[in-house]
Amino acid sequence: MATLEYENIFKSFGDVQVISDVSLTIPHGSFTVFVGPSGCGKSTLLRLTAGLEDVSSGKLKIDGRDVTEERPTARGIAMVFQSYALYPHMNVADNIGFGLKMAKMPKDERRRKVAEAAEVLQLTPLLARKPGELSGGQRQRVAIGRAIVRQPKVFLFDEPLSNLDAALRTQMRVELAQLHTRLGATMIYVTHDQVEAMTLADRIVVLSNGRIEQVGTPLELYSSPRTIFVAGFIGSPKMNLFSGPVAEAAGAQTYGIRPEHIDVMREGGEWKGTVQFVERLGSDTFLHVDADKIGRMIVRAIGDADFRGGENISLAPRPGFRHLFGKDGVAIQEA
Amino acid sequence: MASLRRMHRDGKLAPIFIFLPPALVLFTIFVIWPILNAANFSMYKWSGYGELTNFVGADNFRRLLRHSIFHQSLWNSWKLILASLFLQIPLAMTMALLIYRKTSVNTAFRLIFFAPYILAEVATGLIWSFIFDGDYGVTAQITRFLGMDQLYILADKRYAFLTIITVIVWKYFGYHMMIFIAALQSVPSDLIEAAEIDGASPWRIIWHVKLPLISHAIKLSAFFAIVGALQVFDIILPLTNGGPSNSTHSLVSYLYYFGLVQLNVGYGSAVGVCLFFLCVITAFGYKRLAIGKGAGL
C-alpha cells in the first residue's frame, strides 16, 4: 500500500508563492502525472513529495503516516531525475547498488539485487561501464534501475524523458508503462509534455500557477475540461478557443472545439474560411484556417487531404463536441 | 611534410612562428640558462665575484651530503610537505565543506579565511614574529597576564619549527579552501539530492559523492601544496632566520643562508641543483602516482 495524501500544501520561496493550497489524494498503484507549463509548480510539488524541499504549510501523508518533516530516505520513495543524476565516478553496478550500500545491505545480497534489476532493464552487459560510456537511453535505464532496486513505496519521475530524442522517448514511454504494470507501485510522473501525460497516466493532475486546475483520467480531461486552461493544455493540437459572435451566440464567453471535431468540406458547412497553411503528417493533415468572423483555427482532416494554401473551404463543427466557458474561465455545463 | 602543408593552408603555422620564438627566447634566458649556469657554478668554489677558476668537481655535493644542517633542512622541508598535505588540505577541505554554499555569511567567512593568503610572505612573518615575541609581543602580554615566565617560542628549538608550520598552514589554507569551494560549487546538486534519496547521511554524501567528484581539485591542490612546501623561504627569514641553531631552515632558506649570505655561490648552486632535481622528481612522481591514474590537472 502506498497512498499519498496532500493536505492544504503551500510552498513559497521568499515572497514568491509557488504552490498554493494543494489538496490531493493519489491512490495506491496509480500512475499519476503532474502536468502543466513551465513554472506551474509541478516539479516543486514532486520535490516536496520527495522531501528535497520543505513545505511552507500543510501536511503530506504516505499510507496515512505524516511524513511532512521526514528526511527523503525515511519516506520510502525513489526518484528518477531529469538529468538522471548518475554518479559519474561509479560504474553501472555501483550506481544501481548505491542505495542498498547506504542501507548497509550485505555485499552478496546487494550484488544479487543489482543483477536482478540489471536483468529486468537489459543492463547486464553494461554493469562495469561508467555513465559517461552509456547512451542516453541506457543512462535512463540505470537511473530507473537505481530506483527499482530499493523497492520503494512510491516512484517519482521528474521529466525523465525530456533529454531523449523522439524515437527513444516513445520507446522509453512504453517501457515505463510496462514497468508500472509489472511492479504495481505508485508512480508520480512530472512532465510538461501533454502527450506523455495522456499516454502514460491513469490519472492526470493539471497544474497552473501552483494550483490544481483539474484531476482526472486522460479521457475525462480531454472530453470534459473544467477550465479554459485545461481545455487549451490537453490535446494536440490544442483546442480552438474563440470569443466574439460565435461564443455569444452559444451564450458563453468562450467557445472551444477541438481540431478533430470539425469536419472539412468544399462547401455546405456552417463556417467559411481560407486555408493559410497545411501540415501533412501522413496519417493526418492539419489545416490552419482563417475562418470568416471567427478567427484562426486548426482543423484536422483524416489522411493526406487534398487542400492547399489559399483555398476557400467550408467547416462544420460536430454537434455535441463544443465546449463553452463563462467569464470566469470555468466550463458551462450544457443540458 | 603533408601535415606542415596542411597547417600552413589552415593558417596555423604563422601563429606558431610569430608567438613561439619570443616565448622560447624568454624561457631560455630566464629558466634554462640559469639552470645550466647553476649546474656549472656548483662545480666551483666561488664567492660570486671574479672569475670561475677554482674547479672542485663534486666537492660541493659531497660537502652538502655530509652537512648536518642540510639534513635538518631536508627533513624540515619534508615536514612542511607532510603538514601541507595532512593538516593544511584537510583543514581547507573542512572549511570549504562548511562554507561553500552561496550565502552572504559564507562569503564573509571566505573573505576572512582567504585574507592571509593576500598578505606578502615577509609581512606575514613580521606580524607573527611580533605576536610570538616573548618580550614585547602578544605572547609577552599573555604570559604577563597569566603571571607565567616569559615564553620565547621562536627561540625554542622544540617549538620554533612547529610555529613556522602553524603560520604556513594559517597563511595558505585559504588558498586551497578557495580551490575546493570552486570545485564543490560545480558538483551538480541533483547528484547530492539523489544520494540523499538513496539514504546517504551527510557524512557519506561527502565521502561517496562530493570528494570523488572534486578529486581533480584535490590533486591540483596537493600538487600546489607540495611545490609550495619545497619553496618556503620568505616566511622563515623574518620569523626565525633559520634559527635557533639553524634548526628551522627549509631547503631554500638553507641555500640562501649558506650560499648567498656566506658568499659560497658555488656551494649554494649545488644546493639549487639538488632542489631542482627534488622538484623534478616530485613533479614527475606525482604526475605518475596521482594524475596519471585519473583526471588530469
Which stretches of chain B are poorly predicted, pLDDT < 50 over at least 5 residues? none
Q: How far apart, in Å, are the first and last alpha carbons of chain A?
A: 40 Å
Strand content of chain A: 25-35%
The helix/strand class of chain B is: mainly alpha
Q: How many helices of chain B does DSSP assign?
A: 14
Report the structural category of chain A: alpha+beta
The radius of gyration over CA of chain B amounts to 24 Å
Task: Give the CATH H-level superfamily of the largest domain in chain B.
Answer: MetI-like
Can you tell me about this structure?
The complex is a heterodimer of chains A (335) and B (297). By secondary structure, chain A is of the alpha+beta class. Chain A folds into two domains: 4-230, P-loop containing nucleotide triphosphate hydrolases (Rossmann fold, 3-Layer(aba) Sandwich), CATH 3.40.50.300; 237-325, OB fold (Dihydrolipoamide Acetyltransferase, E2P), CATH 2.40.50. Chain A is 27% helix and 32% strand. Chain A is built from nine helices and 18 strands. In chain A, strands 6-7-8-3-9-10 form a six-stranded mixed sheet, sandwiched between helices. Chain A is globular. Chain B has 297 residues and is mainly alpha-helical. Chain B has two domains: 1-41, no CATH class; 58-291, MetI-like fold. Helix content of chain B is 73%, strand content 0%. Chain B has helices at 2-9, 13-41, 59-66, 68-99, 104-118, 121-131, 138-146, 160-185, 189-197, 202-213, 215-230, 236-239, 251-261, 265-291. Chain B is flat. The A-B interface holds A 50-52, 71-73, 77-79, 81-83, 85, 87-89, 98-99, 102-103, 146, 150 and B 188, 190-191, 193-201, 204, 208-209, 212-213, 215.
